[in-house]
Amino acid sequence: MLTLHAIPALRERLAAHRRAGRTIGLVPTMGNLHDGHLALVAEARRRADVVVATIFVNPMQFGPGEDLDAYPRTLAEDQARLEAAGCDLLFAPDEATVYPRGLAAQTRVSVPDVAEGLCGGARPGHFDGVATIVTMLFNLVQPDVACFGEKDYQQLAVIRRLVADLHLPVAVVGVPIVRAADGLALSSRNGYLSDAQRAVAPRLHQTLVELSQALEAGEAPAAALATGLARLREAGFAPDYLELRAADLSPVVETTREAVLLVAARLGPTRLIDNLSLTLPR
Questions:
Q1: What CATH number does the domain located at 188-275 have?
Q2: Which of 37, 126, 167, 205 is catalytic?
Q3: How far apart are CA 131 and CA 117, in angstroms?
Q4: Fewer Cβ atoms within 10 Å of its own Cβ: the N or the C terminal residue of the chain?
């Protein structure tokens, strides 16, 4: 696996692949990789001739008081995992390469509607940062396909809207959530949990499963969500939100059938997110 840090070298290498008629798959990450990231690499490997991963801890998507400085940087370990997973090229730029004029002077991409509420409400400006860096990576890599995890459900919706609205020639693929044996969605931030918190953390997914069963059995959404919030608080979580949305993140209406439960909650200082799709009864 080749690791590049500079934009001209990246463009030169990828231009050669395109001249040879090879398709390119992109896996954007912030590093500190786990098996969920490697599932994205595997999916890209199935869909493209050349797999490009990126590692960049994007300061634009972190808000004041968030964990930008504490976010683990584990480049050597990540390189080894990517190479073992069959990645062909890693692009790992520094902040000065990505934002040479600094964040304040940087052009930004903003996606309306779908980026509002949920994590967009709890983390103002977060999805502007996501949309900007993803647009930049799509421009730099010019992939045929890009793979993103379904754990970040709203992020995936934002990226799909971005691609549709800007008519970008990229197939966006959502890859199912990879979970630990006890149901906890894999996340780089799980490493922040203490042993005691890690024992509690699976309750997040378990609560979604219980709510899904109740809703599919016909329980009123307001009552089910209230019960879910109470269970999370009893378990020790501090919820940011627990919502039921249509699968496209629009509000649930009487005719909605395909829906999704979405949750974000803090366990100590660690913010965890999860989601679960379900079919509402007629």
A1: 3.30.1300.10
A2: 37
A3: 16
A4: C
